[in-house]
Design brief:
The chain is 29% helix and 24% strand. It is of the alpha+beta class. α2 crosses α3. The chain is globular and about 35 Å long. It starts with a strand and ends with a strand.
């Protein structure tokens, strides 16, 4: 599994913003869906205004991804690591790891930091991932 540093278009959308923004959900969705960062930002905030939940709340993200035709694959209590064979390497997916969302395209992680491992330098645990329905 490879890593490519990419902000998903945040710097272009918000040139004056801080580089550390807590925007992993927006970034991961923008990268995986090949949509403009600001469009995803606006779409998620629009859902948030209707529901009262934050843009990065699971309920908001899941609703948005389902509207876009993405399916959630949950692992439940199984311990599935980022390097597991259960994670598709030849597809575009969005992984939900502990306190973070990250886009993976054909086995390459696209993120602002190398999120393949956790703070103990172990492969990150994947709780679920999202994949586009055909």
């Amino acid at each position: 599994m490879k890593f490519t540093k990419f902000d998903g278009g945040r710097k272009q959308a918000f040139p004056k913003a801080d580089t550390r923004a807590g925007d992993c959900v927006i970034r991961a969705i923008a990268i995986a869906t090949h949509q403009d960062y600001k469009k995803v930002w606006n779409d998620l905030f629009s859902i948030s205004l209707e529901t009262g939940n934050f843009p990065n709340a699971d309920s908001t993200c899941v609703a948005y991804l389902e509207q876009q035709g993405w399916e959630r694959i949950k692992f439940g209590k199984r311990m599935v690591r980022m390097n597991s064979k259960l994670i598709p390497k030849n597809k575009t997916i969005i992984c939900h790891v502990r306190k973070h969302w990250v886009a993976m395209i054909n086995g390459t992680i696209f993120d602002t930091w190398d999120s393949r491992t956790n703070s103990w330098d172990e492969p990150n645990r994947v709780f679920s991932y999202y994949i586009k329905n055909k």
